């Protein structure tokens, strides 16, 4: 029978076997597994002293700091549920997540206290507030408790009986609307993460918590346990889940100290910490990483990448050009995953040492994924039709407090449960997946469907385009007009007509933008995901359109 564990039980077992091994590195802070286990047990005691019932939600409004991981695992130990809150969210967005999740505790960084103070004056905050960091707090937040004091002043809780059915809730990025809470059971998340984690190490998936700890100790003893640099924000599923999987194998997690992604710091940590695995989010991370490598090469001080075994990405496009630039510099595997907060991966693109990467946005369909027509029937590989990708297997149980949306995305077809978040693609006879776009941002122009991502990737091949988003704006003739919001190289001399022609020469004419809107900086989420709401607002304002 497959193991269906609680993650707190697994981490306690791993810590007991080798408490002196490192678990988390952040700047000058080096936290051992023993310290990690004790801190999370103290947090569990705090949550229990507050009489939080199993299933109560604790919201984390934090940057990438060790406290984020400590709080998540401390919540697991007390059988309460950690909730991620994007640290770039402001008033209404934070209020939405807190209200939607019915969070009973909010933990926030003191650098974000201004936002919390604004909410305190208008209502909508949980009764319990915890501040992480040494910064001053506004008077209205004087009742907030300090994280360090809570941990130091509480005795560690003894382990309790827990369940693999306990929850973790991951709020999605909300590219087109307010974020939704994706509910994962611990056991299902273990099944999703454990097989690839152990398969990569050539091990079978353990069948007991003790077996997990023994496997972690064996990997650590042989030097095969990972040193994971989780570069994206931990509010991003890729960063959090890959960090959890690294700890599962007895490894350590290295966090950047910069508040914004800093490629120079990343490569410095790779060299100083012997990083083996790096988590990124597509070209929003890969491009500055390659630029920093180029700069170091030009200075005669090339980065030592010899420790890096794997770079993994999910969330946005990772182009073939930047993959090739990374592959040339080391013997690492490049794993590009087409997935979602709701589950997957639906498809992967794996570049092995010595291989040339596949074309941008080209993947191979995953073993448990299929392509579905609008009526729910399976589209066979090689058919040529565009369909929606679906995945069957371990995954979330649905959206928190949203049965209607759950029913539309988590569907039962012919007796099997599929997750169908809305990624459209084609599948060739050899299993090659060509991603077309997300249905939720599909533009209907003159009766034709246009998927923004396809147009965006085409525009990005123009040397003047630094970044772009494509949205639809109201049009009296076409219903919606394809509109490109572009950030250009300030030194490039390019006309709007040049950009339109660039797309027209490569895609069907109806996909070419009818409007080009130039911005100084394209707004994205801290995880690098597109912010289509912001792009559309910029387009409407620039074009003088009311909508």
Task: Please give the CATH architecture of one domain.
Answer: 3-Layer(aba) Sandwich
Structural class of the secondary elements?
alpha/beta
Broad CATH class of one domain: Alpha Beta
Principal-axis shape = globular
What is the end-to-end distance?
Answer: 55 Å
What number is the mean pLDDT?
A: 92
Residue windows where pLDDT falls under 50 for at least 5 positions = none
Biggest β-sheet description: 15 strands, mixed
Q: What is the element layout, followed by pairings?
A:
Blueprint: H1 7-17, E1 22-26, E2 29-32, H2 33-49, E3 57-61, H3 66-78, E4 81-84, H4 91-101, E5 105-109, H5 113-122, E6 128-132, E7 145-146, H6 147-152, E8 167-171, E9 181-185, H7 186-200, H8 209-221, E10 227-230, H9 237-248, E11 252-255, H10 263-273, E12 277-280, H11 282-298, E13 310-314, H12 320-327, E14 333-340, E15 343-351, E16 362-365, E17 369-372, E18 387-392, E19 398-399, H13 403-409, E20 410-413, E21 416-419, E22 423-427, E23 432-438, E24 443-445, E25 448-450, H14 452-459, E26 465-475, E27 479-488, H15 496-504, E28 515-518, H16 532-543
Helix pairs in contact: 1-2, 1-3, 1-8, 2-3, 10-11, 11-12
């Amino acid at each position: 029978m497959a193991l269906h564990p609680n993650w707190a039980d697994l981490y306690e077992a791993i810590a007991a076997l080798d408490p002196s091994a490192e678990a988390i590195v952040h700047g000058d802070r080096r936290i051992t597994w023993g310290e990690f286990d004790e801190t999370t047990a103290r947090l569990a005691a705090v949550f229990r002293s507050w009489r939080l019932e199993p299933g109560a939600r604790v919201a984390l409004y934090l940057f990438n700091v060790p406290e984020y991981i400590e709080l998540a695992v401390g919540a697991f130990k007390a059988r309460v549920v950690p909730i991620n809150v994007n640290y770039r969210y402001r008033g209404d967005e934070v209020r939405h997540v807190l209200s939607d999740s019915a969070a009973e505790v909010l933990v926030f960084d003191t650098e974000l206290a201004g936002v919390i103070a604004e909410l305190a004056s208008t209502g909508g905050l949980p009764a319990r507030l915890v501040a992480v960091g040494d910064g001053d707090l506004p008077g209205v937040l004087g009742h907030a408790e300090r994280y360090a004091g809570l941990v130091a002043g509480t005795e560690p809780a003894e382990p309790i009986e827990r369940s693999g059915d306990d929850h973790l809730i991951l709020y999605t990025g909300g590219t087109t609307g307010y974020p939704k809470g994706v509910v994962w059971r611990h056991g299902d998340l273990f099944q999703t993460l454990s097989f690839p984690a152990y398969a990569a190490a050539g091990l079978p998936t353990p069948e007991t918590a003790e077996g997990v700890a023994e496997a972690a100790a064996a990997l650590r003893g042989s030097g095969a346990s990972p040193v994971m640099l989780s570069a994206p924000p931990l509010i991003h599923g890729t960063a959090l889940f890959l960090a959890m999987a690294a700890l599962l194998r007895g490894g350590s997690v290295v966090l950047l100290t910069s508040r914004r992604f800093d490629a120079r710091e990343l490569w410095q940590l790779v060299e100083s910490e012997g990083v083996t695995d790096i988590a990124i989010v597509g070209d929003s991370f890969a491009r500055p990483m390659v630029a920093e490598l180029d700069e170091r090469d030009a200075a005669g001080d090339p980065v030592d990448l010899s420790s890096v075994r794997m770079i993994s990405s999910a969330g946005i496009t990772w182009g073939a050009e930047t993959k090739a630039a990374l592959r040339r510099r080391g013997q690492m595997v490049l794993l590009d995953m087409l997935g979602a907060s709701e589950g997957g991966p639906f498809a992967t693109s794996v570049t092995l040492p010595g291989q040339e990467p596949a074309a941008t946005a080209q993947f191979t369909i995953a073993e448990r994924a299929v392509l579905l027509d609008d009526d729910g029937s399976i589209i066979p590989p090689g058919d040529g039709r565009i369909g929606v990708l679906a995945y069957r297997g371990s995954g979330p149980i649905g959206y928190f407090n949203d049965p209607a949306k759950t029913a539309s995305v988590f569907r039962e077809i012919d007796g099997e449960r599929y997750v169908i978040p809305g990624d459209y693609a084609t599948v060739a006879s050899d299993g090659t997946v060509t991603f077309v776009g997300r249905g939720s941002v599909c533009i209907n122009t003159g009766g034709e469907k246009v998927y923004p991502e396809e147009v965006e990737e085409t525009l990005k091949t123009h040397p003047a385009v630094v970044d772009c988003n494509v949205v639809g704006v109201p049009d009296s003739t076409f219903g919606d007009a394809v509109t490109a919001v572009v950030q250009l190289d300030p030194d490039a001399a390019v006309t709007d007509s040049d950009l339109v022609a660039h797309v027209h020469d490569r895609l069907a004419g109806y996909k070419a933008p009818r409007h080009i809107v130039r911005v100084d900086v394209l707004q994205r989420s801290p995880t690098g995901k597109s912010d289509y709401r912001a792009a559309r607002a910029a387009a409407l304002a620039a074009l003088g359109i009311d909508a």
